[in-house]
Design goal:
By secondary structure, the chain is of the alpha/beta class. It is about 45% helix and about 10% strand. It is built from 40 helices and 25 strands. The strands form 6 sheets. Strands 12-14-13-16-17-15 form a 6-stranded antiparallel beta sheet, sandwiched between helices. It has a 5-stranded antiparallel beta sheet with strand order 5-6-10-8-9. A 4-stranded mixed beta sheet has the order 1-2-4-3.
């Protein structure tokens, strides 16, 4: 048994709330049943089949109010895998659902049998024709695709609010549109071609001139059936007219019947039908989009009105003036948005009925923008606007920061309102459209309907297109509350269809919650054509049953998920998945959303449940150990849920009294620890490489087994040599700042492949050259930013070191009169922010007086203006660290790099390296997984310099790319050296 074995049972929930009616039953505790598990493993390989109960549970939730636990999860790598699964499902009468990002709001990404992950191995974009078109794989996020297109002045038409997380496969499969797409820029209108795998395994590239000929040979019945339906529709003028009318406003309810009118051949019809088909007709393996110009000249305003109907009445005026976006946010939405970073706090005091319109004009040039501003000014003069709180300006602006703030608040609608709901309630997101001219009337009717059923929903949406979303919460564990929701839904659907002839789903696609109401909107004739379409393309019903078509009138009430209370930091989570693309462990173990999903399932179980035991057995490694703790999930989450902090708390819970005491002792005697670490690194550096690396790996491996494998790092060949015993000599007299070399830079040297000064020597040198000399205190040894203890959850040690560094910094800086310059971004973050909760009241007062400055910021803002650049390198690639994102220092890193290099590149696939101090040495597989995409992009071309701002992140990137990463300040010293 290891000396410091984690406390058994420490992760067991302190109070289990179950048994809940929707808990996973105990007979599922073994995970995927036989022979399903063995057969798929033999077919695909063990690494592609996820079968543990924890795997099944973490894939059971998406951003919707539904929850269905699959029998097995397959991680498909290519079309061959997809075809093999479909063939297997046909032979065994099984069902298949495809899942990419899981950001769908209506349960489209959930299945009860075989669930296929088509995100992990399906990312990539190829820009074509100078950006006019783009070939994109289905696991690519909209944000990633637009980043590649922006360099060419182009952008995709669809722009959903979930662009940072949702993937193009899902966008096309749901015909998601967003703020500006309307009916002309959506997937249906801007998709050039796609490649799909039909349920029978046939692969169709709709751009292939021979596609129809080949499809006729492979699937003659399918071709005949599609053309029969086309002829039947075209022979019915009334039906043709009805179909055309339905798509004059936004509509994603049911199959896209106008595909039969717009397509002339089976392949063309299929191309149209696949858009919005929700994975029920085939798998989309690749798409080619026609892109749109990226108009960069903007003017925007957030305009406040006294009521929802008053705001809606103003929408046609802005549409006529040429606004590209007119977004509506009601009072409930605005007040909930105060949880979003940057939103004015006084929005919390807005009157209940206050409603805002976010209006944006976009033009290709300044003349166009000026013309729009003139029209906007004339409109404003005639509007009945209100300014109930001080932050409201009701003016148009060109300021990019202000405009980004407006959009951040708008895009956080679902998550901000969801985060503000009563804890333990389930969130429903509805999405409908009416003719834009009737929007104000529809708003009044919706408010009245909500009041009749006792709901006070939040409303927002794409008002320019008559498309509104509203959110309401209810208790899915309470049958009476479910009945109230059911009654409201029946009234809402009838209101939308019978009074307004609207769309029950405008852009979120049909999904489980609208499938029972499909015939209400479309009528029996058109609905039956949709059922026939499904039978023609998927005669055996293999793909996604009950997601788009369902004759059960209560299908929308099946599978509603309860939301048990968990740890307070995670309670606001609505499982939207916005956090997942930024998570370093996304492709290795679990994501922030999944960590919370697993925790909630634990709370559904009853004590002694075998499912609970199985979840706990996996949670230590899958959730806690392989969390990098970088908290970038907090940045991605619109309401700032910090799952990284939760995992650090779980690490603390697992510590025994002995382990906490040992960690506190290490903090108290850190001077000796630091010296011993430097001596050990120096001794290791003297060993020959071919002997040393193997020997040290064996020694550290033995120590990991004896002590604790999540405490003792393993030796990696990329570990740098030892730093000098003493820092450079500096003087306090005349110093412009106090320079604090982080302990990592006092222990480890700069990259061995790089000649020249050490990092401390470089910082001292460039500061002196700029006339801003720095002073290094002699007693820095034995101090630390406390991140070592904070990241591992050692509370007592963290407290010791946090207070020590603040007290020391107070003395060094003469009570905060001089700035404290820190040369590792994670340490800057630690001293500036993370130590605060662990300080005594007296030391918090001292901390408030300190000025903590990252060395890169010091260089960019204080040194660069006074330095002469004498030489540059041709190209440099940057790895901005997670800490820099938290600090907001990325622009300064780029500024320093641009002074040193003719070309500076930040990878589109930039992510956290997950080295996280020593976590990359504890779990090298985490760093390997986290850096895979960035490393592939970096190594695809030559760079003269590889630059970052944190020594251990540089080691992680060294290991990932085989290139030598170094501090940007070393490059600055070289560039300005006389």
């Amino acid at each position: 048994m290891p000396l410091l074995e984690p406390k058994p049972g420490a992760l067991r929930p302190r109070s289990v709330g179950g048994p809940a009616h929707d808990r996973l039953p105990d007979h599922r505790a073994a995970g995927t049943p036989e022979p399903l598990r063995t057969e798929l493993t033999e077919l695909l390989g063990a690494e592609k089949v996820l079968w543990k109960v924890s795997d099944l549970v973490r894939y059971a939730s998406d951003a919707s109010p539904y929850r269905f636990v699959p029998q097995v999860v397959v991680v498909a790598e290519d079309i061959d895998d997809v075809s093999a699964v479909l063939s297997y499902a046909h032979g065994r009468q099984r069902e298949v659902v495809f899942r990419a990002a899981g950001t769908s709001l209506n349960g489209q990404a959930q299945g009860e049998d075989i669930l296929v992950d088509v995100r992990r191995h399906w990312a990539g974009i190829e820009v074509l024709e100078e950006g006019r078109r783009a070939r994109i794989r289905p696991g690519t996020t909209v944000l990633r695709a637009n980043a590649a297109l922006a360099r060419h002045g182009r952008v995709l038409g669809p722009d959903p609010a979930s662009a940072l997380a949702c993937t193009l496969g899902g966008v096309v499969a749901n015909n998601a549109s967003g703020m500006t797409a309307g009916t002309t820029r959506n997937s249906y209108r801007t998709l050039s071609s796609l490649t799909l795998v039909l349920p029978g395994g046939t692969v169709v590239d709709t751009a292939d001139p021979l596609a129809d000929e080949e499809l006729a040979r492979a699937e003659p019945a399918l071709c005949h059936g599609l053309m029969e339906i086309k002829r039947e529709i075209e022979a019915d003028p009334e039906l043709v007219s009805r179909i055309r009318a339905k798509y004059e406003i936004k509509n994603t309810t049911g199959y896209r019947l106008d595909a039969y009118l717009d397509g002339t051949t089976p392949v063309e019809i299929l191309r149209g039908l696949m858009v919005g088909s929700e994975g029920t007709l085939g798998f989309i393996s690749e798409v080619v989009f026609d892109t749109l110009p990226l108009d960069r000249e903007l003017c925007s305003a957030l305009l406040f009105f006294p009521s929802l109907p008053a705001a809606a009445a103003a929408v046609p005026l802005f549409n006529e003036a040429g606004a590209l976006a007119v977004e509506l946010m009601d009072g409930n939405t605005l007040r909930a948005s105060v949880s979003v970073a940057g939103v004015p706090a006084d929005w919390a005091d807005l009157p209940k009925d206050t409603t805002a319109l976010l209006v944006e004009f976009r033009a290709p040039d300044e003349a166009g923008r000026d013309a729009y501003e003139s029209r906007a000014a004339q409109l404003l003069a005639g509007l009945d606007l209100v300014a109930p709180v001080a932050s409201v300006t009701n003016t148009f602006t060109r300021d990019a920061h202000t405009i980004n703030g407006y959009w951040k608040a708008r895009k956080a609608f679902v998550t901000a309102v969801g985060g503000a709901r009563v804890p333990g309630t389930t969130l429903i997101t509805e999405d409908f459209a009416v003719p834009p001219s009737r929007l104000a009337e529809a708003c009044e009717a919706l408010l009245a309907l909500q009041a009749r059923h006792g709901f006070d929903a939040a409303v927002a949406g794409h008002a320019a297109h008559g498309n509104l979303h509203f959110l309401l919460a209810f208790d899915a564990a309470d049958p009476a509350d479910v009945a109230r929701y059911a009654a409201f839904m029946d009234g809402f659907c009838r209101l939308t269809v019978e009074r307004f002839d609207g769309s029950l789903k405008a852009e979120h696609s049909t999904g489980r919650n609208m499938a029972p109401f499909l015939e209400l909107e479309w009528g029996p004739k058109a609905t039956e054509l949709m059922w026939r379409t499904k039978r023609v393309v998927d005669p055996d019903g293999v793909l996604a049953p009950r997601i788009l078509l369902d004759r059960d009138p209560r299908a929308h009430l099946r599978g509603l998920k309860t939301i048990p209370r968990v740890e307070a930091v995670a309670d606001p989570c609505i499982e939207c998945g916005f956090c997942e693309p930024t998570c370093p462990s996304e492709d290795l173990t679990s994501t922030p959303r999944q960590r919370i999903v697993l925790r909630r399932e634990m709370m559904r179980q009853q004590p002694g449940s075998r499912v609970l035991d199985g979840l706990l057995g996996s949670y230590g490694y899958d959730a806690v150990d392989t969390c990098a703790g970088d908290s970038t999930c907090k940045l991605a989450c619109p309401v700032g849920i910090d799952t990284g902090a939760l995992m650090k708390d779980f690490r603390h819970r697992r510590h025994s009294v002995r382990e906490e005491r040992a960690a506190a002792l290490a903090a108290e005697r850190f001077g000796a620890v630091e010296s011993a670490a430097r001596l050990a690194v120096a001794a290791a550096d003297r060993l020959p490489d071919r002997i040393g690396d193997g020997l040290l790996a064996a020694v550290t491996g033995a120590a990991r087994k004896a002590v604790n494998p999540d405490l003792v790092p393993r030796w990696l060949p990329q570990i740098p040599g030892a730093a000098a015993r003493r820092p450079p000599v500096t003087r306090r007299t005349g110093a412009a700042a106090v320079y604090y070399p982080a302990c990592v830079n006092r222990i480890f040297a700069s990259p061995g492949a790089r000649s020249g000064p050490s990092l401390p020597e470089a910082v001292v040198a460039v500061s002196e050259r700029a006339g801003k000399p720095v002073w290094i205190p002699r007693d820095v040894t034995g101090t630390c930013c406390a991140t070592i203890w904070h990241s591992k959850g050692y509370e007592a040690g963290n407290r010791v070191m946090a207070n020590r560094i603040v007290e020391s910094a107070w003395g060094w800086t003469a009570g905060g009169r001089l700035p404290l310059v820190v040369d590792a971004s994670s340490c800057t973050l630690g001293i500036a922010q993370e130590v605060v909760p662990y300080l005594t009241e007296q030391n918090r007062a001292l901390h408030a007086e300190l000025r903590i400055v990252d060395s890169v910021v010091w260089a960019a803002e204080e040194l660069l203006p006074h330095l002469e650049v004498r030489r540059t390198v041709g190209s440099a690639v940057l790895h901005p660290t997670c800490s820099m994102r938290h600090l907001g220092d990325e622009a300064q890193l780029r500024a320093v790099a641009e002074a040193c290099a003719d070309e500076v590149v930040v990878p589109d696939d930039l992510g956290c390296c997950a080295f996280a101090g020593d976590r990359g040495m504890l779990h090298p597989e985490l760093t390997a997984s986290a850096t895979a995409r960035e490393a592939a992009e970096v190594t695809a071309r030559h760079f003269d310099a590889h630059l970052s701002a944190n020594r251990m992140c540089e080691v992680g990137m060294d290991r990932a790319t085989g290139q030598s990463y170094a501090s940007v300040l070393l490059e600055l010293e070289h560039a300005t050296r006389p």
